[in-house]
Design goal:
Layout: H1 2-26, E1 27-28, E2 31-36, E3 39-42, H2 54-57, H3 74-79, H4 82-95, E4 104-105, H5 107-114, H6 118-130, E5 134-137, E6 141-144, H7 149-173, H8 176-195, H9 198-216, H10 219-243, H11 246-262, H12 265-288
Antiparallel strand pairs: 1-2, 2-3, 4-6, 5-6
Helix pairs in contact: 4-6, 5-6, 7-9, 7-10, 7-11, 7-12, 8-9, 8-11, 9-10, 9-11, 10-12, 11-12
Amino acid sequence: MLGRKVAARSQNGEGDGQHQRDEQCKRKDGVAWHCHDGSARPLDPQAEPNSNIQDIYQLEGADADPSRGEEQAPSARRAESLTEQAYRVIEEQIVTLRLKPGDVLSEQSLSATTKFGRTPIREALQRLSREGLITILPRKGVLVSDINPRNQLLLLEVRRELERLLSRTGAERATPEQRTALQEIARGMDQAAKHNDDIAFMRLDRELNALVIAAAHNDYAARSMKLLQSLSRRFWYMHYREAADLPLCARLHANQARAIAKGDADAAGRASDKLLDYVESFTRATVLA
């Protein structure tokens, strides 16, 4: 009898513990989740907002590949906080000019259109302000920053040094999986150049940017580079149709990816410099256009 009572208490204890785990699993990061057999999926539609960036940076039907630096996989989206999700949605809208330079925004309007709460929106806007994509005007709203080719040239002075550092250290420190992914991106860039495929190029460029940062294994350089990437992508998106030689640009990216994959730090540094030479000439061409 005593043994049965102990067993019953043990079973009740396990049940209580499981109930607590279930309750914890039902809400994480302020989002309702459904848990079953150790897996979880969000019940709150805010947890997985639709993003139009897939129309630009991903080929139709392409699956995300975390080893190549993509961040669109469902598991990755679920792991993101609401602030990170709000940042990603708004940043994509600014980079792709859905929110245009000079547009005046507000926390209230962004919350209504993106379906995120005011707190995630406010925190996302603070990050976007640090990156230079917006200017927060106290008691007036939020202004999407202008696109200035001269400022872009100043940005490229910094990006050139960081890009060379990340390329060289990535060649030395990349994991075997990262080297394989870099080779795949290089082959994809070759195809984008061959077919003058701007959609494929932009998707691969996004992957390559993330992978070069990851392969360097330097958090300080990574944080610095991430501050520049959104401004660079927005500038490219605005002007590439009028001033870019896309096949040449794709080949330069492929050369950079291959040099890093092969572990040749000197070649990676040279490939990075050649790429930035082209990007700088492209930027100067927009001034004259």
